[in-house]
């Protein structure tokens, strides 16, 4: 969607909408469009499943379900569903924590690691295209803004 055209579209009225709700709507619409596009990229898994893999990779040690839910910003139930599907596909395993037997840790399988290596170059190219024409300065400002919004949400 071309937002410049949408703003001038006679079928949609943004009126004197303040920039804050406009940005929230823009972020939501972007998330929906990005997810739909990313879901067509991988044949084996969805974008949300791939995002879970990315988040697991960010962890210094294999995360628990609660830790991964916090990182992903999603509910325990939603992350559990994603992990169950990844497990069914052979991408993750749940193993018992060696120090605390009550905890289970999420581990990426060799199949998942091969999948990530196989798709890394193309994933990087797509990310590059998404950020084409955006300066490092603009990107840094956007990151700072969204991180501040994230902190504000946690205080609601």
List keywords for this structure.
mainly alpha, 156 residues, two-stranded antiparallel sheet, Arc Repressor Mutant, subunit A, 7 helices, 2 strands
Structure description:
The protein is globular, with a radius of gyration of 19 Å. It has a two-stranded antiparallel ribbon. With 156 residues, the chain is mainly alpha-helical. The chain has 7 helices and 2 strands; from the N terminus they run αααααββαα. α4 (65-72) packs across α5 (76-88). 13% of the residues are buried. The longest helix is centred in the N-terminal third of the chain and has 23 residues, at 19-41. It has a domain at 38-125: Winged helix-like DNA-binding domain superfamily/Winged helix DNA-binding domain (Arc Repressor Mutant, subunit A), CATH 1.10.10. The two termini are 32 Å apart.
């Amino acid at each position: 969607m071309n937002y410049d055209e949408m703003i001038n579209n006679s079928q949609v009225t943004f009126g004197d909408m303040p920039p804050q709700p406009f940005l929230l709507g823009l972020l939501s619409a972007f998330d929906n469009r990005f997810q739909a596009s990313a879901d067509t990229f991988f044949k084996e898994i969805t974008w949300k499943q791939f995002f879970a893999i990315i988040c697991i990779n960010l962890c210094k040690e294999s995360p628990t379900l609660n830790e991964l839910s916090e990182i992903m910003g999603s509910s325990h139930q939603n992350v559990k569903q994603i992990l169950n599907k990844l497990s069914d596909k052979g991408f993750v395993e749940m193993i018992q924590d060696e120090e605390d037997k009550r905890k289970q840790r999420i581990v990426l399988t060799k199949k998942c690691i091969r999948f990530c290596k196989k798709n890394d170059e193309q994933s990087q190219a797509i990310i590059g295209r998404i950020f084409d024409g955006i300066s490092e300065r603009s990107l840094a400002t956007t990151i700072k803004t969204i991180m501040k919004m994230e902190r504000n949400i946690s205080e609601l």
